[in-house]
Design the sequence.
């Protein structure tokens, strides 16, 4: 059975509910699953009605092509999504590959912020196109 983007979001939520030891591994898994949910959702913007194109820079990897294409967009919300996804990608790579690095509460908080911002802003773009995104007041 194929997996949908919503399934990746649900998987991250389930991982959050079920903490396990070692805590460091759990934290790294949360960062990774959240990033991939955001990345795959951003990839959807390049399909169908949104008329976005992926840059064809041969030096870029698949993830870099997506966030650089968003950064180079003429839409401020997409630029923001691209910049956020770029920072999130670095955090995900650090948590996956820099095993000597400790994942602290700060990194988890930052990952969660990136996760929420990407989802909120992508949802907004899908619903409203190139209208200006206004962050909700807390």
Sequence:
């Amino acid at each position: 059975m194929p997996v949908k983007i919503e399934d990746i979001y649900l998987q991250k939520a389930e991982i959050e509910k079920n903490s396990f030891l070692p805590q460091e591994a759990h934290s790294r898994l949360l960062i990774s699953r959240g990033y991939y949910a955001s990345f795959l959702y951003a990839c959807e913007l390049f399909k169908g009605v949104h008329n976005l194109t992926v840059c064809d820079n041969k030096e870029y990897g698949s993830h870099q092509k997506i966030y650089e294409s968003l950064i180079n967009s003429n839409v401020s919300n997409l630029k923001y999504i691209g910049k956020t996804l770029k920072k999130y990608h670095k955090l995900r790579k650090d948590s996956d590959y820099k095993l000597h690095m400790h994942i602290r509460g700060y990194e988890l908080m930052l990952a969660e912020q990136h996760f929420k911002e990407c989802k909120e802003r992508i949802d907004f773009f899908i619903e409203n196109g190139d209208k200006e995104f206004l962050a909700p007041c807390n």
Helices lie at 5-17, 23-44, 62-71, 76-97, 105-128. DSSP finds five helices and no strands in the chain. The chain has a mean pLDDT of 92. The CA atoms of residues 77 and 133 lie 6 Å apart.
